[in-house]
Amino acid sequence: MTKVRKDLFALIDKLVKKAPADWMLAACEILQSIDVDASSDWVIKKLPSTNNADLSFLIGETVRMASNIMSWEALSWALDSSCEVYQQTLASQRIELLWSGPTPVAQIPARRIDQALYDLIANAKSEILLVTFAASRIQRLVNELVNARQRGVKIRMILEFEQSSEGQLSYDALKAFPETFVQNTEVYCWPLEKRERNQAGRPGKLHAKLAIVDDTVLISSANLTDDAFNRNLEVGVMAQNNEFLINTNNYIGSLISCGILSRLTGC
Known about the structure:
Strand content: 15-25%
Radius of gyration: 26 Å
Oligomer: single chain
Shape: elongated
């Protein structure tokens, strides 16, 4: 019986992912009204019609398997609950393509990286983390960050520096931010002694570009620079997914806790 239940739950999972929400609602309403002694073949005939062969097969298999272990009303609630959970999961997860630079002729639906970042920061309620290799000429971003700080939002930055990159970055990213802002911001760096060197003796670079704002993660190729926001061809993705958010936060937290990243004292 345990295997049958598992197989049924697997069918229900496939079914709710395949079926339109309104079709599923109609099917559940019909199942709730069907007599408990009705045969599975009779039930299948009473369900809403569909031109989707896969959906038709799945509902047929689900009904036949369920007939041996539960009432039609119980099946309706199982389907309804699974569909509701699935729809809520979809609503809570979002992945969006971002870009900067030339606009394709085909007008692919995608927001600009800088605009998405401005919007996130303008609506931030709890915490902002920014990671970048370079930063310069970003007054609007600075203004949005200052406003967020005034709302009580915690801000952390992980930045690259000329000294700890041994000149691979010629202008410290920190210089893009006002001193008064930096004084009340957690700033982290990657110390030179923590970096591996290549065959030419050059240390690795802090080259990541990442923003975490409350429950949203934005990853892109763009540095926090005017060129990256307005002239370079850059691409990115913005995701709202709880597991992805937790893993990203844990990764950054682990880099800090094990000492690979250090709070700024003179990197």
